[in-house]
């Protein structure tokens, strides 16, 4: 089963923008995400609607951050993406009148609820500034400069 990596990809792009001097085009960001620029524009437009990024059209335009990284959490970005499902598992619903299925589903419902609550709470504790600091430390320890247009070159 394929996992949904949209949140990871968006966080990836936001951190690149934090390191990047000036605007980055959808084409450059698409290379970093290994996707189509149309997908990037669609996702970034949703983030723009929430005030996390801004865009400028024309020559020299592109996407830039519009938020304070210390005030934005993983949960904020997760919610801006429409709060996609966190867990791939679900309940069996083929026999809703079956008492065994009801008991199993009740136990699983509680476990799923608890797991999601814990994960969302953790998302709320991690800011983009924390991710940026970790990323920046990794770049510095590697001794390399950050260049969005070549860092993902194949």
TrEMBL record:
Protein name: DNA-binding IscR family transcriptional regulator
Annotated source species: Phenylobacterium koreense
Domain of life where this protein originates: Bacteria
Keyword tags: DNA-binding
InterPro entries: Tscrpt_reg_Rrf2, WH-like_DNA-bd_sf, WH_DNA-bd_sf
A Gene Ontology molecular function term of the record: DNA binding
Keyword flag Phosphoprotein: no
């Amino acid at each position: 089963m394929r996992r949904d990596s949209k949140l990871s990809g968006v966080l990836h792009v936001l951190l690149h923008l934090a390191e990047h001097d000036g605007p980055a085009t959808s084409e450059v960001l698409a290379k970093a995400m290994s996707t189509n620029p149309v997908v990037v524009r669609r996702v970034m437009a949703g983030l723009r609607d929430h005030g996390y990024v801004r865009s400028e059209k024309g020559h020299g335009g592109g996407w830039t951050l519009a938020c304070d990284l210390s005030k934005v959490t993983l949960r904020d970005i997760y919610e801006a993406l429409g709060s996609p499902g966190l867990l791939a598992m679900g309940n069996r619903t083929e026999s809703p009148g079956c008492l065994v299925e009801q008991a199993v589903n009740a136990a699983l419902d509680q476990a799923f609820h608890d797991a999601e609550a814990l994960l969302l709470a953790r998302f709320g504790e991690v800011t983009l500034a924390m991710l940026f600091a970790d990323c920046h430390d990794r770049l510095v320890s590697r001794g390399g400069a950050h260049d969005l247009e070549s860092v993902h070159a194949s």
